[in-house]
Amino acid sequence: MVDRLTKIENKIDTLSKEIQEFKSELKTLLSDKINLSSSVKESFIADVVKNVSKLLIKVSIYPTKDECCGAVEGYLSLNHASFFSNFTEDD
Fold it and tell me: What global pTM score does this model have?
């Protein structure tokens, strides 16, 4: 039982780190591409993370990095198309 709990805890830690990396990358992209106030950026990031997390939990309790990226791209293209269109495949 303890072993299973430890594995779950490790998976949650990994997912938490990936979310933090995503937030950091999104902040960098926002800074590079669009001039917005800091509070608007934070609000936008929180909205994206919250809604993408809701989508991902329906697909997988422990999503892979590819699943996370796909969910973010899908969410942004459907809900923030003008923002998403600022990016290219190289970004």
Answer: 0.56
Tokens of 45: 């990031």
SS3 64: coil
Structurally, how many domains does the chain consist of? 1
Whether 75 is in a domain gets the answer yes
Q: In 29-90, at which residue ranges do the beta strands (DSSP E only) sit?
A: none
What integer pLDDT is reported at residue 14 of this predicted model?
Answer: 84
Taking the alpha carbons of 78, 29, 63, 43 in that order, is the dihedral positive or negative?
A: negative
Q: Does the structure show a pLDDT above 70 at 36?
A: no
Residue 41 pLDDT > 80? no
Where does 1-91 have alpha helices with state H? 2-33, 38-59, 65-79, 81-84
